[in-house]
Structure formats: C-alpha cells, structure tokens
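## tool: complex_structure
## caller: assistant
## args:
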Amino acid sequence: MTVHTTEHTTGRQAEPRDAGARSGRNAILRAARRAFTLRPYAEVTLRGIATDAGVSASLIVKHFGSKEQLFNTVADFGPDADGLFAAPLEALGRHMVLTLVHSRRELQRDPLLRVVFSLGNTDERSLLRDRFHEQVTARLTTLLTGPENALRAELVAGQLLGLGATLALHPSGATSAADAERIADLYAPPLQRLITG
Amino acid sequence: MTVHTTEHTTGRQAEPRDAGARSGRNAILRAARRAFTLRPYAEVTLRGIATDAGVSASLIVKHFGSKEQLFNTVADFGPDADGLFAAPLEALGRHMVLTLVHSRRELQRDPLLRVVFSLGNTDERSLLRDRFHEQVTARLTTLLTGPENALRAELVAGQLLGLGATLALHPSGATSAADAERIADLYAPPLQRLITG
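## result:
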C-alpha cells in the first residue's frame, strides 16, 4: 500500500499551527531531502538531519516518527503525481505545466525534481528512484493510450523534470519572470503531443 | 578567456595511452564531478577526491594540475555547448537530441546534466551554475532570433536537461532501449518549435 503522506498532512499529527513549528518542520524536510537524495539510505541518520536542520533529533521524531517514516514522506511521489495527472488526457499537457509552475511559486517546491539530485549519488540503486519509477513513470505509462506509451511516458517525465530544472537553475531568469500561462503556451503543446501520441 | 579543456584533451598532457591510466583519469573526473557539484568549492579537497577515486592526490596533480584547474575541467560547458549547437538553426532541434543521446551512449556522459546535481547543494551560489548560465543559456539566447529568445533559450535548456535526466533515471527503460533516430522523431519537433519561435 502506498503511504500518502505529504508535506502538508502527515497523518501522524495535525498541521502545526504556529509559524515557528512550521519553519522547523520545513527545515527538517529540506535537510531530509538533501540527506536522502545525496547519501545511501543506510548512511543517513536522524542526528545528521537534525544537525543540518538546526533542530533536535527528538523534534524530528515528534513531527515525523522514525527514519523510515521520514524517508516515506520525502520519497513519496504519490500526492505529487495525483496533482500532476488530475486532468483529462486531452488537456493534460497544459495542466501539468501550470501545476508544476504553481507548485514552485506558491509552495516553493518542485513536485519531481528531487529524484534527479539522487543521480549524483554513488549508489547504483536508490529507493527514491524506485518510487519515482513506480509512482510517476509506470503510472503515466498506464494512463497513456496508443503505441510506444512507455517511451512517451519517459519523455513526458523528462520534459517535466526539465521544466523544473530550468526554473531552479535560472531563479532570476526569463522563465521565472514569465506568466505561468505564457510558459504553458510555449511548453504545453510539445508535452501534449507526447501525451496524445 | 574561457579555458576549453575537455575530458578528452586537457592541454596539460597528451591523452593517456593505456587503459589503466585512462580508467584512473576517468575515476578522478567522476569523483571530481561529484565533489564539485555536491559541495561548496572551498570545502572540496584534492585529498578527498583522491580518496573517493581510489588514487593518490599526486596522480590528480599529474593529470589535472591544481584544484582550480580540475574544477575548470569539470565545470566547463564550452566544448559540450560547441557540440550541441553545431547545426544551422532550422535543424538544431534534431541535432541536439542526437548529440545528447550519442554522448550518453558512446562516451557514457551527459553534456549538461551535472549542473542539476549542484541544485542539491545548500549553497545559494554555485560556480558551476554561473558557467552554465554563461556558456549554455546566454549563448543559446544570442543564437535564437525572434521574440522571447531568453525565455525560449531557458526552455530549450530545460528540454535538454530533461532528456538527459530521463535517460539517466531509466537506464533499463524504453528510451534507453529506443533507436536514437526514433527518440529524435518524438523529442526534436518540440525543441525545434522553441528554437524557431
């Protein structure tokens, strides 16, 4: 069963009410994302994440539970895929572009890009990549109809990762300054062509 | 002046002739790429890279010179951009896709993707990203004609990063198995549309 924990509702605990708790929680998530994407799972410790986040290890346990539960929160692409794929096939390209741009601008997070950071890792295997395959690429493959759906699904995933990457790499660039609808005008038709096949 | 050292000719020394020297050299480059993309420049040491590569620090000096010279080799996108951009504008999309796929398959390296790994870094600034802006995005912006060339250049860079990312993330996937010409059939028209404007 896929655990649909997100950064917004953990199921363990209600959303923290005050800004202090929320910023501590966000600092933990940022540090955990760095740790789990850049190092093998076995080498990651709650103590190391706590030091990086500037909080106590017990605060991590309070917010997220065990190391495994924290990993599940960070590595889970399920809710992000739910959001990205929530449109009819014939309108999916534009919906994906707008969802990704809005997520970056309003939530300060990219739905998918963290999986790419894990490629800098020396490991051949990565739990994060396994989750991505299952929750993003394989799911998209089953959504698409027509020939070469696996190939097209991988290329669609690539285009989404590429849009997130270029937004992150050019925080003061033309794309970051552009209207989301204008980005969609330029970037959605290619995506839609791959989706429609 | 841009130093056009590549992984293939350093200018310091002729290409190593035997496979042993070449594999040591490649191990150093892989370790250096990891180090410079994942850690702040000041924290990277030749000793650390040597340990990661399983060689002596003196071998690094012999092959690449100083830490700064090694960084220049790893961070330089000039020769990669030369290869990617070496086609007339009206045929550039297909040329870029084929060049990227061939580089991955024949040289086991992506021309651009290392810049994305640097996003996992905690630094706000990154010399690697500065080089990417100058040697890839800004250069592409001046190549493109018509309106919104900066925006289109960033989106083209995104599509190239996305193609490299999806190939790297799915080493046993449909894209990795597909004929390069078939990938270009699907992926080049969108790129070309952004290039032509």
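## assistant note: Residues 1-16 of chain B have pLDDT under 50 and may be disordered. The first helix of chain B runs from residue 19 to 38. Handing back to user.
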